[in-house]
User: Fold these one by one.
Assistant:
Number 1:
Amino acid sequence: MKILRANGKFGFQDEQGKVLVTPKYDHAVEPPEGEGLGIVCLGGGLCDRSDNHEPTRLEHLGGKWGAVDERGDEVVPLEYDELGHAGHRILIANRGARIGLLDERGTVITPIEYSWIAPFSEGLAMCRRAEGEQRNGYLDTTGAVAIPCEYADALTFSEGRALVADADWNHGVLDRAGRAIIPCLYERHVLFKDGIAVVKRDGKYGIVDEVGAEVVPCIYEAIGQFSEARAAFKLDGKWGYLNHAGEMVIAARFDDYLGGPSAFDKGRARVRLNGRELFINNKGAELNAKKPPRTSLEVLRRYGQSDPERAQLFDELQPWVTAPPSDERDRQLVAELLAETTAWVASHNSYGMPFAQYSIGWLRESLVKQFLTTLSGPLADPQKGPLQLLYRLHGLGRAQ
């Protein structure tokens, strides 16, 4: 069903433009795919809900709301203060500041007695009771209570889990049957990423897995977000790095870690030690201990020299270069190289090496190709290309 407007009134039509509901309503809401019922309203008017922010957000408020099917029949009478689609061909109905659920025939399947009901997610809809203390639970698609309203906070289900908080605002995780995957023990939401979550208990941070086991005990003063299998942690006032298994892969010796909540980006992290800001690699080695080459042309020229010169270049570059993507696009000839003050960027937007000093502008494809024609050997091989060779400086620091 698609919205049909004529003479300031709303109705519905099908995909081919056939009129299903003659335009006669003051407002209408198109049903999501598979939902079946179009929501309609008589009376009320538009209200600006943008709160003086752009873009302007107009919403139809007031009037009486109902729903029509594809035959044009008003299966839900226009007697509600507001209606919304909940999914599973179910409607959320508001009457007198109380909310319930209706099926596609307009039958009340959940009493209109809640203060809030969210749309369904994974077959369950979060609901909030109206009487007494604010408590949240979940309804199933029959409209029955699936998980009682006993939580101070509850979020919608995702991947079979929902985040909840008990009456003391300790956080945990439920499965769809209402069983506690992770008991309500923690002082903040348990947000999973890559199968683990940073948690806080008694003012200290740790890590739990998806079954609730503490893979890292809550002993740390802080734990940052994981990125590239590393997370910064603070212990006894110093910062180090953990892996997903909770192992301390870089000891706590830094005064601070910099660069936002994520620990590593393109194989490097920025830290502060004894008043100095420096880069480290994912093993904790200081990258500023070796000066990177000043320009991309210097790298290309030195690569075209003798084997000893090339080997020395690899040794110098190894701490600065991260493992590249291995798909075929890296086998193409160089499109562009860009050296910035902080990174070497290829045309596919992968970062290579940070530059501690100097900055050069764009090096266009035509210039690079012209330069490459003066070289011989594997660097000029169109089946490999210089990026493939240059960026494969990982492992032992030798090109493949």
Number 2:
Amino acid sequence: VELEHIFWRWDVSAMVFWKGYIREYGGQEYLRVILVDEQGTKMEAVACGDHHMMFNNVFIEGETYDFLGVYFTPTYTPQRPIWISECPRAFREFEDVYRQPVDTFADVIGMVVYASEIQDRGDFWRRPNRHVLIMNQRKNFIIIHVNDPHLQHHMWEWRRAAYQFKTLAALHVKISTMRGGVTTTDYSQIIFSPICSDVYDLKDLCKRIRAERKQITKTASVLTLAIINK
């Protein structure tokens, strides 16, 4: 969309990357979402007036929708510094992630308790991957199937993170067909020891379970093998 065309009406297809909460400004309620097109380009969309409630009930993060007859508005860059949070303010509970439809996206955070050796998927291309198990405060687990480019970007971090029970945030990971698992994509982001409130709660858990390191690691390894071999 060129600048001179922004006020035209457009039909576009895009995936809902992130959906906010309904908020009010100047006496009018609105809904903000972040959309991603096929090339991975992100754009903010705002629904207001009579449409915000409908979109709030319909939109699901990770799903793709067709938007008919929409307008684009230029964004003016402010002169003041902009601070963007590295992590979301809140993460979904693992139980909620389990219930999401396959191929939708979620953000998860937890303590790394197990990282497998690098292995291939056993398919025609023999693509390498690694299984990483993270645990939340309720001692529930979720498996992250780590693929490239994240496998190479954090080559030396995975095993050390598991040994030290480091906190890991996995952003925009895809719900896998395998129960209790998510998969990284090219658009995912892996953050070790992120700066957010969940990290402090997980640090307390880490201190309490260090004495159980051997048993937790063994349980995590067995659980990972049981899930991936189903």
Number 3:
Amino acid sequence: EAWRRAGGSPDAAAYAPGAVRAFSESGDGAAVEASGGVVREGGGGAPIATVVQLLVEGYGAREMLSLRGSLEGLGLGGAAFVHSDFDVFFEQDATIAGYTLASLGAVLISVLGVTLLLSAQPAFALAMGACALSSVVLLAGWMRLCSVPLSSLSVVPLLLAVGLSIDYCTHVAHAFWEAQGTPGQRATRALAARGASVSLGGVSTALTVSLLAFSGTAIMTTYHVMLSGVVLLGLWHALIALPAALLLLSPAGGGSGDGRGGGAVVSTMQRSKAPPLPARRGSAKELA
């Protein structure tokens, strides 16, 4: 550093004293320099940088961060750094988990807020949030089952799962809230009114993404696996899990009478009894 500030350029013999000079003159030192391990000023002056090549088995994001931590512990600052041609890919692997959790949290909070604002029903918003969270958790298991790693490709469908799950479940939940009768009757009527439409929407989406299975690219095949899982889990929550949960959580009585309080609604429409006809006067033959 001193000779650099002074503008000088000492020769290699003066700059590399003792063991360093001996090593540079040895066969091993010549081999290291021949492999590009020593960078000299002007191509033949004093050494200004060295390159140490490490062969790390299973090198990935964790090993990259471990090597960086080791260098930081030496207190060398910016004088030494770790570099690999694949670090650009490992950088996303090192940060994708935190980014995914933060994004999922923001999406779930936004969905809960908008659902509560539009429905003015806290129970309805909580039901939608529970379905969305359950879909994301089960989709993570689906990724494990299908050997799909968490990456920049799979995180996009994972975030889309929240919106698509709400899209499937909100129709059935809204029909349940508007239906009248006991909880069992309301669940049955909600499925009868919206179940077919929700099923057709899921089937049409599944048929659309099935074409991606014939592509040979990693992007398309990843989207096919992820979106297929989103549709499957969304339909399962909308047609099976959500009606069952609403059936169990809705009270059997004590509702407001309009089908929204969870209680049974008793219909006041009853068949009225017709008044008796007046007796007719006539002969016994006519009366008979």
